[in-house]
Amino acid sequence: MNLTKRLESLRGADTGAAPSPGAASGPWAGGAESAGVRSLAPEPKARSTDASEALNAIKDRAGTALYERMGSRITDASLDEAELQSYVKDELRAIVDEDEIPLTAPERHRLVQEIIDDVLGLGPLQKFLNEVAVTEIMVNGPDKVYVERDGKLFLTNARFSSEDHLRRIIERIVTKVGRRIDESSPMVDARLSDGSRVNAIIPPLAVNGASLTIRKFGQVPLTVDNLISFGTLTPEMAELLHACVQARLNILVSGGTGTGKTTLLNVLSSFLPADERIVTIEDAVELQLQQEHVVRLESRPRNIEGKGEVAIRDLVRNSLRMRPDRIVIGEVRGGESLDMLQAMNTGHDGSISTVHANSPRDAIARLETLVLMAGMDLPLRAIREQIASAVNLIVHISRLRDGTRRVTHVTEVQGMEGDIVTLQDAFTFDYSAGLDADGKFLGRPTPTGVRPRFADRFAELGIQVSPAVFGGLHAGGGYR
After folding, report:
1. Of 11-15, 79-83, 147-151, 174-178, where does the model show the most confidence?
2. Which of 119, 43, 42 is nearest to 87 (CA)?
3. Are residues 136 and 177 in the same domain?
4. Residue 428: pLDDT band with limits 50, 70, 90
5. Is residue 478 in some structural domain?
6. Residues 397 and 340 in one domain
7. Do 315 and 303 fall into the same domain?
8. What is the CATH number for 246?
9. Residue 451 pLDDT more than 80?
10. pLDDT tens string 268-288
């Protein structure tokens, strides 16, 4: 039986009853969450499998015909994305019409879109890249695709047809950025054209098969008003942070993986004056600064021959010769932390960076460890003195168990007492308010009522801060 007749027989109802008017029908009927070839009507497993196999065969045949028709035009770099999409759609419609495949109009549209995703995009992952609510995509194998929405992980019904299909998508990603992934180089960090970060790892390092993680890049940068509406910040906290950036305090944003450190760093950078020269240094370009006088630097991994690497530390050193008013480092994770601290201590006030840590105190300890990674045989007290002198403020952000991201600490680095770096919280998150009926935290960041020492710097520079920011501080300096 040919595929067309087989498909027609599979689409018929077991009982011979006609479908109800307006009912979803056909192998591509389904909502936005549908992935692969599925029917909404309950069917015996064997019959559903046969339909899926028949439709996959149609997709394979149409895809092969498309390659034969278009040839090298599919990889023609002179064509922009819109032109290529238009060419592919026209050719696919012609192929489907010529083959007389018995599909409804919605089914044809979906078939064409799935083939386009396979040929030009990332296959079953493409729709998640296009979905605004999805912030991260995690592929644990051909049949396990997870996404993050609103801070929570969900298992989707998206599927790759095989391990080879997943590997082809991974190779398509890495080859576009001039990288390679194979048994001799089985893991890679890359960046999609839209700025999304990609990590891929394949066997033999990935025991259960290839794994792919994509952290999506927001097309529209979030503003401080967005973070206030989300509950990440309070208006008082935002006012304080704005004043700290204007006063050229050195700020360190700390937090765990996926807590929103880069997003918060982006918001803090929006407070930078437009008349200053800003140099940004990142592993993968994510910051979306709106100022005009910005120089963006990006590190470079080693090439296939193991040469040509340019590390963050090299860029930090080079940036000091570029006459920066501000240095913004996407994240410190190695010996560049020492160069950053020295820059902060030698006239480059107002620098901002992020670091992985579980609390403000842990951020200090992690900075100590990172400085030791620079290979300099420095005594621990000297390192702590550098940190205490360089860093003025630690802003700690956490992803709470309800999926929300909140700034839980705004902490001043006050100096040294003996061998200890002393910290003082200006804001802490109030967990005592409990949870609402939906399991969301009712608490919010609240001021501790302690006046930070850097408030004197505000007065010297003429920066006005509302008395309510510090939790009841009068303009004259007293407490209510």
Report:
1. 147-151
2. 119
3. yes
4. very high
5. no
6. yes
7. yes
8. 3.40.50.300
9. yes
10. 999 999 999 999 999 878 888
Task: Say how many CA atoms lie within 13 Å of 291 toward its Cβ.
Answer: 23
Q: Annotate 421-438 with DSSP letters as a single string.
A: EEEEEEEEE-GGG-B-TT
Percentage with pLDDT > 70 across the chain: 78
The verdict on residue 480 lying in a domain is no
Given a contact cutoff of 8 angstroms between Cβ atoms, the answer to whether 251 and 399 are in contact is no
Sign for the CA dihedral angle at 221, 286, 258, 149 comes to positive
CA angle 87, 89, 91 (to 5 degrees): 70
- Give CA–CA dist 338/356, Å, rounded: 16
User: Is there a single domain that holds both residue 314 and residue 432?
Assistant: yes
Residue 19, preceding peptide bond in cis (omega within 30° of 0): no
> At 478, which amino acid appears?
G
Residue 172: domain span: 122-219
* Number of domains forming the structure of the chain: 3
8 A C-beta contact, residue 374 and residue 351: no
Domain boundary residue among 120, 141, 169?
120
How many CB atoms are located within 10 Å of the residue 318 CB? 13
Q: Which two tokens stand for residue 55?
A: 């439709």
